[in-house]
Design goal:
Largest sheet: 5 strands, parallel
Shape: globular
Number of strands: 12
Strand order of the largest sheet: 2-1-3-4-5
Helix content: 25-40%
Structural class: alpha/beta
Mean pLDDT: 81
Low-confidence stretches: 127-134
């Protein structure tokens, strides 16, 4: 099996080397980019399975690099920053990041998050013959279709809606339990593969992002909030 290609975009040379060496020793093919220019060059040269992007680079805004990836690549994205600023966290997730890591961080924690995202990406992209599939190749709800085999969402007017890895995992989880209130901790464990904490708004931001993608033609189908508990997909019945 080919090694997964990870790009570490970090202007701090020591930090970049430490992360890259640790991931390389963990079995990944790692490229380094000290700035936005070298990263953009890498994007056009090679396929990327996951990018670890520092938000504050000398020649680029990390948010712009995340947008570039979302427009051109289907890959995992982890935001890396020294500022534990809720605004950075929210904006990073809003523009398409899958996870957020604050420096300094234990290398093992970063590795666990890398593996978690790559696992979700692999699960979403695996193509299984329908006759052998353990789950249906598509899930229909309220005029929408979630294609499990290609990780795609098609709207009532046949429009294609692009989903990030995390958005796909969340919608798939909600669709598996229509009308059932899903607790935040359960969703966090199934989508992000970590327990929920009061300070962590990753799930709330992800739900808001998914709602906006469904809003234009959602009809009666909605992702409802249950105060103090979690979320529920209501107004739709799987066909």
């Amino acid at each position: 099996m080919d090694k997964k290609h990870i790009v570490v975009v970090e202007d701090d040379a020591l930090q970049r080397e430490v992360i890259s060496e640790y991931l390389s020793r963990s079995g990944f093919d790692v490229s380094q980019a000290p700035d936005g220019a070298s990263f953009r060059q890498l994007v056009h040269q090679r396929a990327i399975d996951l990018a670890i992007v520092d938000l504050h680079l000398p020649d680029a805004d990390g948010f712009d690099l995340i947008r570039l990836l979302r427009e051109t690549r289907r890959c995992g994205i982890i935001v890396l920053t020294a500022n534990d600023d809720p605004t950075d966290r929210v904006v990073g997730l809003e523009v398409g990041a899958d996870d957020f890591v604050v420096k300094p961080h234990p290398p093992r924690e970063l590795l666990a998050r890398v593996r978690s995202i790559l696992r979700r990406l692999a699960d979403a992209e695996v193509v299984t013959p329908p006759s052998l599939a353990a789950e249906p190749p598509a899930m229909d709800f309220g005029g929408w279709t979630l294609d499990i085999m290609v990780r795609g969402l098609r709207g009532p007017s046949a429009e294609q809606i692009d989903l990030t890895i995390s958005e796909f995992a969340l919608l798939k989880e909600l669709l598996a339990h229509p009308g059932e209130v899903m607790e935040r901790d359960q969703l966090m464990r199934n989508v992000f593969h970590r327990p929920w904490s009061y300070e962590d708004r990753s799930l709330d931001v992800l739900v808001a992002r998914l709602r906006r993608k469904l809003e234009p033609a959602a009809g009666s189908m909605r992702i409802g909030s249950v105060r103090g508990t979690g979320y529920v997909l209501s107004g739709s019945i799987l066909q």
